[in-house]
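Technical annex B. To support the medicinal chemistry partners, we prepared a structural model of the target in complex with adenosine-5'-triphosphate, based solely on the information shown next.
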Amino acid sequence: MNTDNKPAIAVSNVLKTFAGKHEVKALESVDLAIAPHEFVSILGPSGCGKSTLLRIVAGLTPYEGGEVLVNQKRVTGPSPEIGVVFQSSNMLPWLTVGQNLALGAKLRKIPEAQAAPKIAQLTEMLGLKGFENNHPHQLSGGMRQRAAIGQILALDPQILLMDEPFGALDALTRDKLNVELLRIWQEQRQTVLLVTHSIAEAVFLSDRVLVMSGRPGRVVREVAIDLPRPRMPETIKQDPRYGEYISELSKLMGVY
Ligand SMILES: Nc1ncnc2c1ncn2[C@@H]1O[C@H](COP(=O)(O)OP(=O)(O)OP(=O)(O)O)[C@@H](O)[C@H]1O
């Protein structure tokens, strides 16, 4: 539990090289610090190591140099305080939506009666009511991704790591899920680190956007997004600063 103003996530001087016939230096001297309850996005060119960095923070990929601290503890493997959402849903296809949402509690041996209210609340909140008995393949792409997020939120993570969670969705569904994600975050205030390819998504969602260099990836710039919250697309997209942030980040990314 984070009780002071120390970073929820602190990465210092992290290195990662993938060994093999063609050795790949994925990350070099990566530094970043994320405050408790902050919403931070990472942008960077394809292959610069964004997913690798996220997986390192999640304890899913080992790293060589430097240090990664989550809530001031060195990351040595996956931990229950960290939830990870990937681009494609990690739901088990042979279980129903309801069973998938309840899976985490079951694996942690939390009694069903204790877990049920939270799962019912998430089902309602994520617009999945009435679909509890469907299997993942019987849902639309947007619903499947909402359910995958629900499955992770059911575990009550303090830290939410998201790797292109809406990357496979159409623009309209993506916009709607961004609004839902912000609504949930506004209520629960997890510390969020999101990898995205969408500059507009990063600006709309984040308190701060980090920009990585090409491989080997390092955090080279950061832009604080000073837009009012709660954010709704219809008001934020009218705010002249929204367009200014998008153009600043586009320039930093070399888009134009
Ligand atoms: N398990 C692995 N074994 C070997 N090389 C890997 C492995 N995972 C990633 N890499 C390499 O590390 C580099 C960074 O990959 P990573 O997926 O982290 O980049 P990314 O910025 O997330 O890319 P994208 O934006 O295209 O998803 C790439 O060159 C990739 O080929």
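Notes passed to the chemistry partners:
DSSP finds eight helices and ten strands in the chain.
Residues 87-156 form one domain.
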